[in-house]
Amino acid sequence: MMRQVGRVRACLAACVLAFLAVQPLPCFAQSPASGDRLRIVALGDSLTAGYGLPAQAAFPVVLEKALRARGHDVEIANAGVSGDTASAGLERLDWSVPEGTSGVIVELGANDMLRGIDPAVTRRAIETIVERLKARGISVMLAGMFASRNLGPEYVRAFDGLYRDIAEKHGLVLYPFFLDGVAGEPGLNLPDGLHPTARGVEVIVERILPSVELFLSRIEAGHPPLQR
């Protein structure tokens, strides 16, 4: 197990440093007709930030476009920071999610897994994010991640299960695997094999869209917890 984690850390060392990027404070454009608009923040890592892609091809932008095409008056701010772990996302939570936010899509944990961080640490950080947002009256949706199977069954079980457990405990909409349909598909990933191409982002949006629409409907209904 330790040898496998060591290999993962060594492989990621060069990658993560290259992924780190300073992102501006998310903000929402003001317009006279936007009073009832749902303001969503996508809080994540490089998968949200749009690493290696033009700004208009990043997940939050493509998702917003798809939702508006389906009649949703929504604005999605990109609060993705490449290289962020769940704990790093927690540290910047307050300034990443401005006042007036209706809901947050949390996409964090991939870098925790790649670094072999104890899933208990990731769980604690993500659950704290959820609790702090709920305390502010902000709805939360979780976009989960699956652990690389070479980390061993014990790690995989602990990591994969943390998203489901948090979602069930707090009654959240959960999209189990953010990279569903994209992970492992060469034509949908950049040469690094880790980040989606523009087409890969479109596939992610196509697949996650029903879950996001459910999330928006719950916000509009006063975000009651899901009945499990």
Fold and architecture overview:
- With 228 residues, the chain is α/β, with parallel strands linked by helices.
- The protein is 47% helix and 12% strand.
- The protein contains nine helices and five strands; from the N terminus they run αβααβααβααβαβα.
- It has helices at 2-19, 46-49, 59-69, 86-91, 93-96, 110-115, 119-135, 153-170, 198-220, and strands at 38-44, 74-80, 103-107, 139-143, 173-175.
- It has a five-stranded parallel β-sheet with strand order 2-1-3-4-5, sandwiched between helices.
- α8 (153-170) links the parallel β4 and β5.
- α7 packs parallel to α8 (153-170).
- The longest helix is centred in the C-terminal third of the chain and has 23 residues, at 198-220.
- Residues 1-24 and 30-34 have low confidence and may be disordered.
Q: Which radius of gyration do the C-alpha atoms yield? A: 17 Å
Q: For this entry, what is the oligomeric state of its chains?
A: single chain
Q: Mean of the pLDDT scores?
A: 88
Q: How many helical elements?
A: 9
Distance between the termini: 35 Å
Count of β-strands: 5
The residue fraction in helices comes out at 40-55%
Structural class, judged by helices and strands? alpha/beta
